[in-house]
Amino acid sequence: MEIEGKVLLTVSDLRKVLHLGRDRCYDLMHNPAFLSIRIGHQYFVQTKALLKWLDSYQGKEFLL
Q1: Domain tally, the chain
Q2: Which residue range(s) make up the domain with 48?
Q3: pTM to 2 decimals?
């Protein structure tokens, strides 16, 4: 999935990018170490925040 050009990613987008299930993506969105945005009842993550977060955990384990 191409994420470049997208400002916000939905849980569905995140599932495709990270190859995680829906519940794991929601767990991630609720984790304070992961910068997500809630608008109404829907969660989003900024593409640049996701890429920065991935860089910061490169070579490390992130437990949910």
Answers
A1: 1
A2: 8-56
A3: 0.84
